[in-house]
Amino acid sequence: MWRLFIILALGAQPARACETALMLTIDVSNSVDVAEYQLQAVGLADALKDPDIINALVRGASAVAVMQWSGTDKQELSIGWTRIRTAMDVARLSDRARLMPRAFVLSDTAPAAAVTFALAQFGAVADCERRVIDVSGDGTPNAGGDTAAARTQAQRQGVTINAIAIESMGLAITNFYRNAVITRDGFVMTARRHRDYPRAIRAKILREVTKAIS
Fold first, then answer.
1. What's CA 113's distance to the chain center, in Å?
2. Where in the chain are the domains?
3. Cβ-based neighbour number of residue 121 at 10 Å
4. What is the pTM of this model?
5. Which of 37, 177, 184, 208 is deepest in the core (most CB within 10 A)?
6. What is the 3-state composition of the chain as percent helix, strand, coil, each rounded to the nearest 5?
7. Is the per-residue pLDDT at 214 higher than 50?
């Protein structure tokens, strides 16, 4: 009888609280060629195999999704929200990111529309304590609305926006993301060209998910 009671009691325990819902976004606008897209997809997949990131995601019972974006009406939730309970969950997510087909080609750059689309996805992970949009891009807007207005909307909803600025020369993209995209509690990391993206995305995800559990 007592054994049955213990089993029932254990079964009634609530699931661990989700600490971070992380929306990872990939720029697939016209400025990104085939090889550069692969560097982003494979770089993300490899980052998700990093032992420190795996440990942090599992400890935080995190939720992770991946979207691709380019022009005003060009956003795709390529990998829906994945609840991370075990290292195997992260491994499967990594495999899906590695094989993820490119969503759009020959399209404009509209980061404000990307942020608005990402914000609309968080209803499915309302139990998560922190909500973060991870924006990567290699250009300034040539389409879509005001990025500062999208940032204000995120701040009102309690969502953090961080960014990876993929630079080809100088710091123009970094300054744009710092001044017009990230939220007050956000940060920008700079990747020196697309080949530096794998390093930057690993460091960025690690900073995002360990901040929640430190």
1. 15
2. 24-211
3. 18
4. 0.89
5. 177
6. 45, 20, 35
7. no
Whole-angstrom Cα distance, residue 35 to residue 49? 21
pLDDT digits (tens, 9 = 90+) for 100-142: 999 999 999 999 999 999 999 999 999 999 999 999 999 999 9
Pairing of strands 188-192, 159-167: parallel
Helix (H, G, I), strand (E, B) or coil at 157: coil
pLDDT band at 27 (very low <50, low <70, confident <90, very high): very high
Assign 3-class secondary structure to 178-203. HHHCCCCCCCEEEEECHHHHHHHHHH
Residues found in the chain = 214
Q: What is the CATH number of domain 24-211?
A: 3.40.50.410
What's the angle, vertex CA 91, arms to CA 130 and CA 45, rounded to 5?
80
Rounded Cα gap, residues 99 and 191, in angstroms: 23
Cα(157)–Cα(149) distance, integer angstroms: 13
What integer is the mean pLDDT of 174-179? 96
Q: In sequence order, which residues have a C-beta less than 8 Å from that of residue 197 and are 6 or more positions away?
A: 39, 40, 43, 136, 164, 166, 191
* Sign of the torsion angle spanned by Cα atoms 181, 114, 71, 174: positive
